[in-house]
């Protein structure tokens, strides 16, 4: 199994894709001007209390106040408030917590007004991004995530990931964690720390302590709420931190600055893998080269073909309250021993595609799946176990219920950011139902080529694949006629992401000389 990380940098966003054997497994987008994302640490100010909800609203600099529930305060919130107040007032001048006098833990069943009051300053971390009309969800129990460890200020516990395979390894890591854990900090040892050496864990701990010392402490000291103390790693680096393993064979990006940042981060977490990072420099966009734009259009529609199912497909519908997925066999004929075996086979393929779709679209909330009907209870159990298996790699918290009487499977999946929406439909270029003749579009393209062809620049025409096919078909193609007429070769580049009437003319520096859209 080979994985590739592909990054496309545009003016206002970075699009990131994880490919597995050439197929999209994860799609992420990061807007360059995003104000808040999960993991950001902010020094905020309590705006108002909501005793009926046992919660409060905190000004963290976002247009809507963030929501902080009592259960998200964390037991050491009093110590955190005391420390931050001392640092901001100049009474505490050290980022170390070994000599700090801790407060008592709060009562887990207490009320918000006994702990916080309006205008109180508090250190918080974003746990859920703003969704629809709601502001961010936050927690006062902050943590700093590294490759192998998670550092938790104001705590004193060492916790081990439940996913670590053996009790012996858990005991070994627990012992190491207790030895290296600094006073005043807690540690969570992550799954990827399995079989790692003491030196590797210590190196990761030094990196996290340095982040706390040089970023968090200094920003608390000089910051006036609301102020962002620490931004979560950019999306590319956080994906590397959480997903990078031996399966990765390629990391490709079309922006040199981003390439350098990724190399710098890999020098910290996996220096031997820096050579995997490559800079992509071509007039064919990186997502076109790796066939990503085409896959995106195929994967985000209402109808999604099931991989290797030869005609079976999913119908995915979204409502206000839940998401519904219907599995259809299409025109698949039973090639196995019986119709029941064929249904189980298609349902398993559908289960794998559903697990992939939930990750791709970042679908959260309630999901109801209607698989192809099966009568065998053994087959139903086998499908249920297989669905749990393919969902196990999903990092979002989720729960799967066994099939109901009606054969429906219900899934709940954690939502921490808005669902990803990719519009695969195109508007009618002309609302009255009429569009210009294709020959008129070709004339427009030829006019632009004629006006630009005498420049010293090489010319690259980007257009919809149908238009490109028309311009390049045959020995007497329109492009060949341009070459004979102007003595200049125009490179024609099909763009799956373009609309029918959209085209661009670029020079050899990838600058857009002319752009036409619907």
TrEMBL record:
GO terms for biological process: rRNA processing. CDD domains: S1_RNase_E. Gene3D superfamilies: Nucleic acid-binding proteins. Residues 37-141 form the S1 motif domain. It comes from the Bacteria. Pfam families: RNase_E_G. Keywords: Hydrolase, Magnesium, Metal-binding, RNA-binding. GO terms for molecular function: hydrolase activity; metal ion binding; RNA binding; RNA nuclease activity. SUPFAM superfamilies: Nucleic acid-binding proteins. The keyword Metal-binding applies. Its cofactor is Mg(2+). This is Ribonuclease E/G. It comes from Apibacter muscae. The lineage of its organism: Bacteria, Pseudomonadati, Bacteroidota, Flavobacteriia, Flavobacteriales.
